[in-house]
Amino acid sequence: MPERVLVTGGAGFVGSHVAEFYATRGSEVTILDNLSRVDTLESADETRATGAYNWKYLEEEYPEIERVKGDIRDAELVEEIVEGHDGVVHTAGQVAVTSSLTDPRTDFEINAQGTFNVLEAARKADSDPTVVFASTNKVYGDNVNEIPIRDEGDRYWYDEDAFEDGIPESLSIDDCEHTPYGVSKLAGDLYVQDYAERGEVDAAVFRMSCIYGPRQFGNEDQGWVAHFILSTLRDEPLTIFGDGKQVRDVLYVKDLVRAYDAFLSDPEGKTGVYNMGGGSETTTSLLELLDVLEEETGARSDISFDEWREGDQKVYVSDISRAKDELDWNPTVDLRTGVKQFLDWYDTYSTEN
């Protein structure tokens, strides 16, 4: 386990859980965040300010964590902060397809150039840190939608035996439509692979599916599981883009952090590119999640439907075989248990706020 860990985007949902994980285990932790999420997400508002909430949470619960307000686009700052750490978890990024379509330059500067800055800082650092990069399933673009699917009532599923376990890391990224977000994350993804292959930095790419859990304030742009839960609890209407039968594998955030740590603690000889999610055993459609939420809360939001959004995938499920084999890792939290844990957290949160 690394002794000194830097988490970029450390006030974000995933980043804050990474920071908490290492702080509770005695590592020295630094987080870097510019707290920009509300500004960069089209449908975000102050009541769903994940970064501001987690910044305060970490300050109060883990005062030993060093908190630095700064931007990964500032190469000099990143180089200064990376030095001295032996592990870097790079979760900072522009996180929404919708925002990338309206402002692709900012999306590129954060996701591609920002990742390059982190890699260069790690390459130069005397402390020789191992790097984990939070990538995305969107790197596969519309090739995902070229796989035949079948309608199973309230969900779609792959209609080709080769994909019964989900999408492997070998699926082509070429000859298809992408989005600016998918392209910028893929650029960072490939830079990480290149630096690792050339031996410049020990590094891994985690192409994440839908990650959810406590301290996440999702909205229409990003974090759909949390968005659905919060809208249900707050009796707010929900818009479903498409027909609601689209399927995702979902992964509880603490399971994700364990996978990160498995690589950071022992990077030697590992491939370094992992599709990361709940896999074929932990999937849900949007409609199915609404049913689970109604069973757990007794409530259901008013639902309206709109056109499919650009870059959406009707089915995306991660084949997590490589992560299981190389990292000796398995998801441990099923969807219903994860939802209950989110509800327990929100009950405490709403009482305190």
Blueprint (SSEs and pairs):
Layout (H helix, E strand, L loop, with lengths): L3 E5 L4 H12 L3 E6 L3 H4 L9 H12 L4 E4 L5 H8 L4 E4 L6 H6 L1 H21 L5 E7 L12 E3 L4 E3 L21 H18 L5 E6 L1 E3 L11 H10 L4 E4 L5 E6 H13 L7 E4 L6 E3 H12 L5 E4 L8 E2 L4 H7 L7 H18 L1
Parallel strand pairs: 1-2, 1-4, 2-3, 4-5, 5-8, 8-12, 9-11, 10-14, 11-15
Antiparallel strand pairs: 6-7, 11-13
Helix pairs in contact: 1-3, 4-6, 6-7, 8-10
Pfam families: Epimerase
Protein name: NAD-dependent epimerase/dehydratase family protein
Family: Belongs to the NAD(P)-dependent epimerase/dehydratase family.
Any overview of this molecule?
There is one protein chain. The protein is an alpha/beta fold and 353 residues long. The chain has one domain (4-352): Rossmann fold. Helix content is 40%, strand content 18%. The chain is built from twelve helices and 15 strands. It has helices at residues 13-24, 37-40, 50-61, 75-82, 97-102, 104-124, 180-197, 224-233, 253-265, 286-297, 321-327, 335-352; strands at 4-8, 28-33, 66-69, 87-90, 130-136, 149-151, 156-158, 203-208, 210-212, 238-241, 247-252, 273-276, 283-285, 303-306, 315-316. The strands form four sheets. It has a seven-stranded parallel sheet with strand order 3-2-1-4-5-8-12, sandwiched between helices. Strands 9, 11, 13 and 15 form a four-stranded mixed sheet that branches. A two-stranded antiparallel sheet has the order 6-7. Helix 1 packs parallel to helix 3 (50-61) and helix 8 packs parallel to helix 10. The protein is globular, with a radius of gyration of 19 Å. The two termini are 35 Å apart. The model is unreliable at 38-44 (pLDDT under 50). Residues 5-277 form the NAD-dependent epimerase/dehydratase domain. Pfam families: Epimerase. Belongs to the NAD(P)-dependent epimerase/dehydratase family. This is NAD-dependent epimerase/dehydratase family protein. InterPro entries: Epimerase_deHydtase, NAD(P)-bd_dom_sf.
